């Protein structure tokens, strides 16, 4: 006769549902973005991708806080990320701006999708051997925020697609995001920041100021912030390269 699980077992099982619920919300937001793009509601599609980004950031932290990490959760999270930050942004951008470019439009979207898939595969295989402080290549949520942020910015400010520059800017941004994901540029991961750790009063004040700053004009501010982040990896790479050259010259001088 099978034994009934005790209260502690039931509690542990219910906790494991929590991070996977956030992952499901992430997946739903990505799927919703695709549906809204098909319906011509591109602003809603872009906002949905940003919501997916928020849910994706919460599932891992909730799992660590509640000590409910699992191999199933890691695989489920990767599959959800492929939809929300790989396929969804490329489809939204293609339907919104790049259909008129013909084969160049869908090729740019495909480059982005392939970049997202390779980025996630490399992340999963190198997770134990890379510096925890930095991502190797632009993380897929940030790449999705670049693409979706441009859509949101353009729709919110009523930029006309009849202007020939807009589709080509979308084309260039999509390819950049796709290639940046598979680059070796180091992008700050933020994993050293723990939400369970106490912070000084100025830290809370800074968080409030950032929230107020973003709320003044979300599409402009968010797109600007992710543009800066999307370029930060190259700045860090250039700084490391110059530092390595300086150390090499110093060693040659000492010899």
UniProtKB/TrEMBL annotation:
It is a multi-pass membrane protein. It holds the Pfam family CDP-OH_P_transf. Its EC number is 2.7.8.8. The chain crosses the membrane at residues 15-35, 41-58, 79-98, 104-122, 134-155, 161-182, 194-214, 220-241. It is found in: Endomembrane system. Keywords: Lipid biosynthesis, Lipid metabolism, Membrane, Phospholipid biosynthesis, Phospholipid metabolism, Transferase, Transmembrane, Transmembrane helix. GO terms for biological process: phospholipid biosynthetic process. One of its GO terms (cellular component) is endomembrane system. InterPro entries: CDP-alcohol_PTase-I, CDP-diaglyc--ser_O-PTrfase, CDP-OH_P_trans, CDP-OH_PTrfase_TM_dom, CDP_ALCOHOL_P_TRANSF_CS. GO terms for molecular function: CDP-diacylglycerol-serine O-phosphatidyltransferase activity. It catalyses: a CDP-1,2-diacyl-sn-glycerol + L-serine = a 1,2-diacyl-sn-glycero-3-phospho-L-serine + CMP + H(+). Belongs to the CDP-alcohol phosphatidyltransferase class-I family. This is CDP-diacylglycerol--serine O-phosphatidyltransferase. It comes from Alcaligenes pakistanensis.
């Amino acid at each position: 006769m099978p034994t009934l699980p005790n209260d502690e077992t039931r509690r542990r099982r219910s906790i494991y549902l929590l991070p996977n619920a956030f992952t499901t919300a992430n997946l739903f937001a990505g799927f919703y973005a695709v549906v809204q793009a098909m319906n011509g509601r591109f602003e809603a599609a872009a906002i949905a991708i940003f919501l997916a980004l928020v849910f994706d950031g919460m599932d891992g932290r909730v799992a660590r806080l509640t000590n409910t990490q699992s191999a199933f959760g890691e695989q489920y999270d990767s599959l959800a990320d492929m939809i929300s930050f790989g396929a969804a942004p490329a489809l939204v951008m293609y339907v919104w701006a790049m259909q008129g470019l013909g084969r160049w439009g869908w090729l740019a979207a495909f480059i982005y999708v392939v970049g997202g898939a390779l980025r996630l595969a490399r992340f999963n295989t190198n997770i134990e051997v890379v510096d925890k402080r930095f991502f190797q290549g632009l993380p897929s949520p940030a790449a999705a925020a670049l693409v979706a942020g441009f859509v949101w910015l353009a729709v919110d400010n009523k930029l006309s697609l009849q202007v020939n520059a807009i589709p080509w800017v979308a084309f260039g941004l999509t390819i950049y995001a796709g290639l940046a994901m598979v680059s070796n540029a180091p992008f700050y991961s933020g994993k050293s920041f723990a939400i369970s750790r106490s912070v000084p009063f100025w830290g809370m004040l800074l968080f409030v100021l950032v929230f107020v700053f973003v709320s003044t004009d979300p599409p402009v501010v968010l797109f600007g912030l992710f543009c800066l982040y999307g370029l930060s990896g190259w700045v860090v790479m250039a700084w490391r390269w110059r530092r390595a050259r300086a150390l090499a010259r110093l060693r040659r001088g000492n010899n």
